[in-house]
Amino acid sequence: MSESVKELRNVGLVGHGGAGKTSLSETLLFDAGVTKRLGSVDEGNSVMDFEPEEVRRHASISTAFHQYTWKKHKVNIIDTPGDANFFSDARSCLQAADGAIVVVEAIDGVKVQTEQAWEFADQLEMPRMIFINKMDRDRADFFGTLKDVAGTFMPKPILLQLPIGAEENFKGVIDFISQKAYFYEADGKPKVVEIPAEMQDQVATEREALIENIAEADDALLEKYLDGHPLTDEDLMQGLRAGTLGRAFVPVLCGSATRNIGIDRLMDFINDCFPSPLDRGPKVGIDPNTGDRTERRPALDEPFSAQVFKTIADPYTGRLNIFRVYSGTMRVDGSFYNATKKTRERYGQLLQMGGREQEAIPQAGPGDIVAVAKLKETATGDSLCDESNKIRFESVEPLPTIMSYAIQPRSKKDEDKVFTSLSRLLEEDPTLRLDRNQQTREIIISGMGQIHLETIIDKLKRKFGVEVDLKTPKIPYRETIKKLVKGVIYRHKKQSGGRGQFAEVHFDIFPLDEGKGFEFDQALTGMNVPRNFVPAVEKGLVEAMQSGVLAGFPVVDVKVRFYDGKSHDVDSSEMAFKIAASMCFKKGFQEANPTLLEPIMNLSVTVPEDYMGDVIGDLNSRRGRVLGVDAKGKRQVIRARVPMAEILSYAPDLTSMTGGRGAFTTEFDHYQEVPAQIIQKIIEQTKSKE
Ligand SMILES: Nc1nc2c(ncn2[C@@H]2O[C@H](COP(=O)(O)OP(=O)(O)OP(=O)(O)O)[C@@H](O)[C@H]2O)c(=O)[nH]1
Ligand SMILES: [Mg+2]
Fold first, then answer.
1. Ligand of minimum distance to the alpha carbon of 44
2. Is residue 669 exposed (0-12), middle (13-18) or buried (19+ Cβ within 10 Å)?
3. Would the CB of 239 count as within 6 Å of ligand 1?
4. By the 8 A CB rule, do 106 and 133 touch?
5. Smallest Cα–Cα separation from 272: which of 77, 99, 78, 97?
6. Per-residue model confidence as pLDDT tens digits over 541-599
7. CA Rg, the chain, in Å?
8. Labelling 443: which of 91, 277, 355, 568 has CA 20 to 30 A away?
9. How much distance in Å is there from the Cα of 257 to the middle of ligand 1?
10. pTM for this structure?
11. CA end-to-end span of the chain, whole Å?
């Protein structure tokens, strides 16, 4: 448990992929003395990007946790992955933070993922700061980046520092409040000196702007300022803290994570101006007994409450649930109530996550981020609480999946293992979906994009030794008829030496409405067909319908009326009637104007207004039908119906059309007839694969 909740900081690092969040985490840990050597993403020895898939890709695929102590403050770092493929995990884990550092690189400025993380932090009403990173890189442009940031984000970004030099000559930062220059050596320890003469005017102007911004956010300070009294450094720090916490503005700092420049300033800022769990106030939830709104203060004497925001599945050590405590305390070897699953769970050790390592701790309290192993039912998003003081918190839903593949084991013997191993990965990844398509018999995995599904395949191999390939899923087409045919007659007769085979059936075949499936109408009147053969006739029909005449797809939405037939005392048998029924159906089906049906999806595409024309034009070329467009904030939501076959690879196409600014969801809506000119193509393709 941290010394004091007041001195605890839970800090989430967000921003687009490659902005430098993990590198920054490494430098924070190094400067605080947690690591003896500065970890590097590029060299593969980062303590935060420790999973083999991360080391190989030089990028985070999953949120990592660590902590350090700096000037009596304990800081939990939550290093989220920036790539859109892993944004759902970033969102879930950011819920555990009290403040967010938005890392922006000084070269390309704000990118889509940064905007999306920002919007999510807005939803959580989370105080933020911006760290302009990579000031040492070629083409680093501080003011260009600042302009970009100021033009994109609200609340208003305000400048606290100026960089000294840039690119290769980036040497340090000037702090407006202390009015000092900080020059850095490789160890991250600053040499504090007077502001260089040539920068003094610029600093004076920027400092004045900062003072005004701070004063504007605080009535008492504003009054003092307008009365002409100078604001002291203490006034400014107090105003800066209040304005940051109250989200009146977003302070901007700068530096270089890999060169360890400006990082100690950032650490001081986190201590001084970022919220403690106390600043964020009580956590609101629902009393599951009454349905009423209730809350928990971040205090030791409150009943225990917590929420799980991440789960890690390990084939050897089992499952690990990571959660944030909101109120009360917990000690080792205890139990709690899971208000989401409505069960009681026992746990043993309390663990604190430090990258890949876990350290046992004796107890935990408000604001602490803790893990426990081997819970039975608990999953990401669940609320944990004291059994006699129940509370349930809301949690963000996982983002909907956008890409699907059929999965094929390389070795036949792995078929069963594929499903069980993927189910294990499902425990730690709520954005992964697993379905077995009854019709095509394929195992379909769906996820957040190409990279997401590829890393799943990598994990499957590493953790469970199962090798699989990803294939484009088959479209589950179906066959049906459009015309009614009456009086279809088929006689099955075979005379081969001994006992022969004889059966004759008479059918009427009707088309049914979409979704009606198959109906069998036994309408025999005379005694031509003994009734004990009726089940065989129905069975023959059901079997015939499993594989249609056009291209072998299942037949649906058909009614067969069995009204007459003929039989023979000796030669008729169930088998003979089954065959007759099947053949009669196939004959009638061909006369009944057969056609193919395809799945039509509901598609909802969210894009900034500028891209609307392109996206709608593209949907039209995919045989889509636009149903409507609604405004949602600054974005437009296009609702359309599109054939599944046309949007199997929509994710990369939408990304390239919109520069990554588009998002979409799909769900099955109904089956619809395939246009005539396409039917022939599908039939040929299916036949060529046989
Ligand atoms: N020159 C320079 N390179 C940096 C700096 N910070 C990070 N990098 C490099 O940028 C690349 C990406 O850094 P990461 O720390 O992995 O970025 P990230 O934000 O964690 O990326 P994701 O995990 O993919 O979201 C690596 O090659 C780093 O070495 C910096 O301050 N200066
Ligand atoms: Mg990273």
1. 1
2. middle
3. no
4. yes
5. 99
6. 999 999 999 999 999 999 999 999 999 999 999 999 999 999 999 999 999 999 999 99
7. 33
8. 91
9. 8
10. 0.88
11. 64
